Amino acid sequence: MDLARQSLAITFVLGLLWAALWLLKRRGVVPGRGRRSSGGSLESCGRLSLTAQHSIHLVRIGDRNLVLAVHPGGITFLCDAAGVLTKESQGRAAS
Known about the structure:
This protein is α+β, with helices and mostly antiparallel strands and 95 residues long. It has two helices and four strands; from the N terminus they run αββββα.
């Protein structure tokens, strides 16, 4: 009887957590899989893997292009790549 009560309590708490997360996603507080941000201001433009744990990323935030180094210790800002366009964005700009 005690095991059944504990199992029911755990199931109830997990159900409440799921419902809270679902509600927050619907209100836009927590980003969900199916929704995109309204402005679309963050975009990954390219990635270069250096090793298994080190890579360089080109990220567009609004109208700025940032070069970031990702490593086991975190992320390091390398530079603001003003005027750098990837092949994909050049194709979009031409059309």
